[in-house]
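Box 3.1 A note on notation
Throughout this textbook, protein chains are presented in two layers. The first layer is the amino acid sequence; the second is a token string describing backbone geometry. Keep the layers aligned when reading.
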Amino acid sequence: MALIDSMTPDERSRPEILNGSRKKRVAKGSGRSVQELNQLLKQFAQMKKMMKQVQAARAGGRRASGSLSWGGRLYCRFHRPRSRRGEGSCSRFD
């Protein structure tokens, strides 16, 4: 992506150092707008946050928040619950 290629290695590794003038330089060098760069940085921050949550869930041995498991049973959000062994399974769940 041209926006990322227009950043210095330091800016790529630490995007929080991008201030207004740096953003303007990167946007101008890539032929994009500052708004597009801000959108990319926002998406990156959201993905970074999500990856931390997944990593914490794996390290803690629990499921990520919002999972469809309660009390040893898996729930299909479209149909009836099923056991872990697959009895009463829903084809949309798989």
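The CA atoms of residues 6 and 26 lie 5 Å apart. Residues 67-94 form one domain.
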